[in-house]
Amino acid sequence: MTAVDERPAEIGNRRLRKEDQRLITGRTKWTDNITLPGMVHLAMVRSPFAHATITSIDTEEAKSAANVVAVYTAADFPDGIGACANAWPITPDQVTPDHLPLVGERVACAGEIVAVVVARSAAAARDAAELVDVEYDELPAVFDALEAMKDEILAHPDKGTNKSAFWKLDSAEAGTGGDVEEALAAARNDGVVIERNYRQQRLIPAFMEPRSTVVDPTGEQITMWSATQIPHILRFLIAATTGIPESKVRVIAPDVGGGFGGKLQTTPEEFITLAVARRLGKPAKYTETRSESLVSAHHGRDQYQKLTLSATKDGVVTGLKVELIANLGAYVAIIGGGVPVLGAWMFNSIYKFPAYQFNCQTVLTNTTWVDAYRGAGRPEATFGIERIMDDLAAELGMDPLELRERNWITHEEFPFTSVAGMTYDSGNYEAATARAKVLFGYDALRAEQKQRRESGDPVQLGIGVSTFTEMCGLAPSRVLGSLSYGAGGWESAAIRMLPTGKVEVITGTSPHGQGHETAWSQIVADRLGVPFEDVEVLHGDTQIAYKGLDTYGSRSLVVGGEAVVRAADKVIEKAKAFAAHLLEANPDDLEFKAGRYEVKGTEAGIGITEVALATFASHNYPEGIEPGIDADATFDPDDFSFPHGTHLCAVEVDTETGQSRIRTYACVDDIGHIINPLIVEGQVHGGLVQGIAQALWEEAVFDENGTLVTGSFVDYTLPTAADTISFLTENTTSPSTTNTLGTKGVGEAGTIASTPAVVNAILDAVRHLGVQDVVMPCTPERVWKAIQGASAAAETTAEAQPHFDADAGNADTGSTGEGNDQ
Amino acid sequence: MTRITVTVDGQKNVDDVEPRTLLVHYLRETLGKVGTVVGCDTSNCGACTVHLDGRSVKSCNVLAVQADGHEVTTIEGIAANGELHPMQQAFHECHALQCGYCTPGMIMQAIDLLNDNPNPSEAEIRAGLEGNLCRCTGYHNIVKAVAQVAGQKGGE
Ligand code: FES
Ligand code: FES
Fold this sequence. Notes:
The complex is a heterodimer of chains A (822) and B (156). By secondary structure, chain A is an alpha+beta fold.
């Protein structure tokens, strides 16, 4: 093979995305763009109350309004219309209230749907929805997780408790480490114990495309288009909860405008649209407004965290105990109970804790249900551990990076079995940190910080550190099975070799902005030796990709991409028999390279696309072999992969106004081998801003009646271009050992790492003024108050705060937050 | 119903619309110009941004009747003779989009921004895009794309 024939490797190439062409010209297929003959439009009638009995619903006036086709309530569907399932009961006795799409008797949170109006246009449906007269009897309601813990007011009175489940991991019991109580006791005697309460406020995923569903009941199969991350799981759960045979349901996720976990739910709106379309025998569409989206699409985070960490006086950590109280909202969403539990393997992070204990209590409240939001359990954990590591460094008067280095797993120690029982595949924290320090200008910024502190500058500089790891690639099916997760974690792929030389790749993942079409094409182009342009990636349609587990948890590349590799390898193997036959050679004498089978030591050879054409005709093929070279593969990893990174953030805090401004943000992420650096950078940038937004701006706030105060984009303040800065991002490479590509997930890294980096930076700027905590989002008002409070209480600051004391400066009652005006 | 005459992406349209119809709904539902999208109900997100007589407007904030006798340009009308508009090209080259939902509005706003200020600083670009939300990109590459187009123009 001469160098001229060599195509440059696609993997590692900054390929511009294939997806872009349609997206930048307005030819995108969003669900809401779909119009079908005779299509009817839906508007939902939602409860304004957080907890109430429905005493009557009068739909007469709405029914007689212009262009209204029908109005339905739960009473119109005595056999039900399916259910929003919980797919991960974290304990066998988890309290799991029934979650019906259309509520007939009692609403358990504001925004629940009590009636649906069907009309010839969306505007007519919305107008008529105002005419539906619903009478409610209000019930006492509980919103805050700590309040709910008291079981005084019940979110679901029939359940008798708000406590849904308690889940524990103890390293002594599991045999993965020592006894944490012993470690704490020893450190109390001769060492350091840090005890902290942190608050993970509630967030809203706020994908930009509002959710939309179109159902076409005409034809043999019912087709549902939906703005979802999970077409395959949705199809399964429609069949499982409505009784419609799975083979009669086709679900399509066309172009989907962002998800971030927020679209991995099976929603009441999907079930209702399906029911209406079936009842009327007409295509039906529902598209939510943004205000509906903010209150009725699931929320994220919302935890109270208590961390107790022990260390020796010279900064070697000896134990970590975590106690979480997680607010699930009104129902246990599809993986709502499991999300906080994912933190079990992550609080210990990159550090060699000899003893560890994780406790998680989930509770039900009369608020919007809570589920995965970008990072799902890992940002919460990373926030807790990175905050307390900085607090320990401050306590010991150590540089926070030095403290981390003293405790982290060194690169020679991989694979490393953590105290939580996970095996970290690979990593090099030293290398990523060293590079991040250079990129950031760590020493110069520390010098500036010192100078500003000494001169008493009203604008103080803080440096925040976050060295994180995460487990990604949901996931090994056997592991999921052992956790009672309702599904597997495998992924599927198929490759079709078309006679014209084009290649169709079918993937069970379901992208919504991640660029799988481009990245998968790069993988296949390299593997099969075909041009990048000749590869077409098909996804998100259960009739095309009949098998798959969709996209979430940074799993698509590490599981789904690997499935593509396996399918390609099968094609190469199958085509080899044909090639040998056509070349009249022994298969063992063939070598496959750059898309061609060559007979070793000769000039004779044939391209794989020529073989594809020959199998299309199948005029001449070997005996005993089927005439085709297409292949499919299912990949189930043996283990997770563990990306990591070092994030450094410099924040200027104006101590007179509390205003903070990010000056520099540098991060070096190690995500193993990179398929497309351009896409990776984009994922990191987007992730960073979402994580920074949690630190500085975003919070879902309910008032004392359970009404979502941040119910529109006026009040739920997403960051704008003007709020943010450009970032310094780089990568180091420790190839994963759990897939052959050596890749690790990157979709969630930025979000996981950045929140504690920013908050640590703010605290680093004002810690010398006596501030120990600022509750997120760190608004100027909160920062200012913390500075004022610290100087007032300077003499009386206790060493450790009592657990979840509402009066403590670092506990937030949540339900009546101060809003997040910046 | 009110009769309006609106030229959209070069095509003259005559339609009867309800006076309350928003321009974005007229574009999407009456004309099938679904390249322009809706992201909010409070005029905060900018996903619906189009040009009205060459200036950017949020089409959810304009009534269809207000466009009577005017010219509207949408994301579908800026590529000419099979050539992408330089801003579309730059968004592609700089990876300034992920899910692409904000992209039509973002591109229309970015074009308007440079029409106003052909040589903006990074801060000016950021301020000029403040009315357009993107949840995916973190804005980094969007800002880069706009700067790239400004640089090309400056260099001409
Ligand atoms: S749709 Fe959000 S500003 Fe127009
Ligand atoms: S690219 Fe998804 S919202 Fe901007």
